[in-house]
TrEMBL record:
Transmembrane segments: none annotated. CDD domains: GST_N_Ure2p_like. Residues 84-212 form the GST C-terminal domain. Gene3D superfamilies: 1.20.1050.10, Glutaredoxin. This is Glutathione S-transferase N-terminal domain-containing protein. InterPro entries: Glutathione-S-Trfase_C-like (IPR010987), Glutathione-S-Trfase_C_sf (IPR036282), Glutathione_S-Trfase (IPR040079), Glutathione_S-Trfase_N (IPR004045), GST_C (IPR004046), Thioredoxin-like_sf (IPR036249). PROSITE patterns: GST_CTER (PS50405), GST_NTER (PS50404). Residues 1-80 form the GST N-terminal domain. Belongs to the GST superfamily.
């Protein structure tokens, strides 16, 4: 049975969506990141990067959400575009765009908007600008086609969905969908899938620490220990 090392946040959620959409049996292993479980030696043996998600499938261990999506798509033969150089090129481009742009810029926007202390104007402006720029590119792609790669629902749509769910929080703008109508259309469509609803239910199927107390801050933002020593 596949083991999915999970916390109910954007990167793990996209992998759970794939498993659910593919009807692939899996077991959830919770990693409570506010309790610091991502730093435990047994988890670091699976993902030395100390982040969720990670996946163990027999003797295969995979970390990084977009690598896991590609692994699962290749394993199952599901949710891939047609096997031509042109289609595969687009798939890899947009998947890596999500991995290297959408995820990191959205994540840093969340950090500087909602967590970082003042002064943060410069950093927040940079990450907010880049997050918007990346989301506008996704929106423009979705203005051309029903899905990211054309008429077919693929792993790239699932990668986008993970972060699309939290764009109002990323941008600090509840009206953000007026500027990203095509992203909203995709989000709403995927949210109607029973698979997406089962992923939503994972939030409450297991207990996770909610308090952002000092221990949680130490686990999630270990870089701050250097400031205390300075
Ligand atoms: N590039 C990684 C990023 C993973 C990541 O940042 N995961 C977050 C949840 S969305 C996490 O585990 N955070 C805990 C921490 O930073 O300590 C991926 O796409 O899987």
């Amino acid at each position: 049975m596949i083991k999915l090392y999970y916390h109910p946040s954007p990167n793990p959620a996209k992998v759970a969506l794939f498993l659910e959409e593919a009807g692939q049996p899996y077991e959830v292993v919770t990693v409570d990141t506010k309790k610091g479980e991502q730093h435990l030696p047994e988890f670091l043996a699976i993902n030395p990067n100390a982040k969720t998600p990670a996946l163990v499938d027999g003797d295969a261990t995979i970390f990084d959400s977009n690598a896991i999506l590609l692994y699962l798509a290749e394993k199952t033969g599901k949710f891939l575009p047609e096997n031509t150089p042109a289609a595969r090129g687009q798939m890899l481009s947009w998947l890596m765009f999500v991995a290297t742009g959408i995820g990191p810029y959205s994540g840093q926007s969340v950090h500087f908007r909602h967590v970082a202390p003042e002064p943060k104007t410069y950093a927040l402006n940079r990450y907010d600008f880049e997050a918007w720029r990346h989301w506008k590119l996704i929106d423009a792609q979705l203005a051309k086609h029903r899905f990211m790669l054309g008429d077919t629902y693929t792993l790239v749509d699932m990668a986008v969905w993970g972060w699309a769910r939290v764009v109002p929080y990323v941008t600090g703008n509840p009206q953000c969908w007026e500027q990203l109508p095509n992203v909203k259309r995709l989000l709403d469509e995927i949210n109607t899938h029973p698979a997406a609803q089962r992923v939503e239910a994972l939030k409450t199927a297991h207990a996770y620490k909610a308090d952002m107390d000092d221990d949680a801050r130490k686990a999630l933002f270990p870089q701050n220990a250097r400031l205390a020593q300075a």
